[in-house]
């Protein structure tokens, strides 16, 4: 097993930035093979299939807003109606959001017109707490600050990266789960809101050494991305890939 990993963004936009794609990322191995998809909004499956010519075999969902989950319904229909021979993908869900996803996606007894199929039949649902194993690697899960108490979660791999999902600034969480040189992929738009980080929040809440480790995503427009780059921040674009080395250093690989 190589020690090098990659994190590739399929989309980087907020819920209204359709041209940028719904924010989602794929943890890849050193050869560029997908290991774990993080979030699955409406634009994500087409982008995933275009990139990897396959459906995802493992997913982690950060929270239940539709720009992060609505693609699961499309994935269900492809698995239930078109790719019935495929094994159910592993779906890692923070235990606190399982009930919300049940109401959002799975309560309808006629997901297929003829009935007879439960939504979760086509997934291997794995509720997770503070940690889970996947592909021989340990991933940590932690709550973030987005709308409600324990309503949204991030994911981290010590020595490699931390991915916040949607959040306001969370300095105490980052100090615990990214204490070294890990690259921190952070929700941030040019302008903040009660549920999302804005560029002005970064200087207020994070020290300079941590800001140097940030890669920003989930923003409102290409112009916002350029404005944040002008402030000195690394900003991810759709399709861009970051090579993650042991110890936390990262290198951006641009994809044409």
Description:
The chain is of the alpha/beta class and 256 residues long. The protein has one domain: Metallo-beta-lactamase, Chain A, CATH 3.60.15. 24% of the residues lie in helices and 27% in strands. It contains eight helices and 15 strands. The strands form two sheets. It has an eight-stranded mixed β-sheet with strand order 6-5-4-3-2-1-14-15. Strands 7-8-9-10-11-12-13 form a seven-stranded mixed β-sheet, with helices on one face. The protein is globular, with a radius of gyration of 17 Å. The two termini are 28 Å apart.
Tell me briefly what this model is.
The chain has 256 residues and is an alpha/beta fold. Helices cover 24% and strands 27% of the residues.
Topology:
Elements: E1 5-11, E2 24-28, E3 34-38, H1 44-52, E4 58-60, H2 66-69, H3 71-82, E5 90-94, H4 98-106, E6 124-128, E7 131-134, E8 137-143, E9 153-157, E10 161-163, H5 171-177, E11 183-187, H6 199-205, H7 208-211, E12 214-217, H8 222-230, E13 234-235, E14 241-244, E15 250-253
Parallel strand pairs: 3-4, 4-5, 5-6, 10-11, 11-12, 12-13
Antiparallel strand pairs: 1-2, 1-14, 2-3, 7-8, 8-9, 9-10, 14-15
């Amino acid at each position: 097993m190589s020690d090098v990993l990659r994190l590739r963004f399929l989309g980087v936009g907020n819920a209204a930035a359709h041209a940028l794609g719904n924010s989602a990322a794929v943890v890849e191995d050193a050869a560029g093979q997908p290991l774990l998809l993080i979030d699955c909004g409406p634009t994500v499956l087409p982008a995933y299939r275009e990139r990897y010519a396959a459906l995802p075999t493992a997913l982690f969902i950060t929270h239940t807003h539709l720009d992060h989950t609505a693609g699961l319904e499309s994935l269900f229909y492809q698995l239930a109606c078109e790719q019935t021979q495929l094994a159910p993908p592993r779906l890692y869900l923070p235990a606190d959001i399982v009930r919300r996803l049940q109401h959002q996606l799975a309560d309808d007894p006629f997901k297929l017109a003829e009935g007879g199929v439960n939504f979760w039949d086509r997934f291997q649902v794995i509720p997770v707490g503070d940690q889970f194993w996947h592909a021989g690697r340990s991933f940590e899960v932690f709550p973030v600050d987005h709308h409600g108490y324990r309503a949204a979660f991030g994911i981290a791999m010590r020595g490699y990266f931390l991915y916040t999902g949607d959040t306001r600034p969370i300095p105490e969480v980052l100090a615990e789960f990214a204490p070294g040189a890990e690259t921190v992929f952070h929700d941030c738009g040019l302008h903040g809101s009660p549920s999302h980080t804005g560029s002005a929040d970064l200087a207020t809440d994070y020290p300079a050494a941590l800001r140097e480790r940030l890669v920003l995503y989930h923003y409102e427009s290409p112009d916002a991305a350029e404005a944040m780059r002008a402030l000195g921040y690394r900003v991810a674009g759709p399709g861009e890939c970051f090579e993650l080395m042991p110890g936390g250093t990262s290198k951006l690989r641009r994809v044409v």
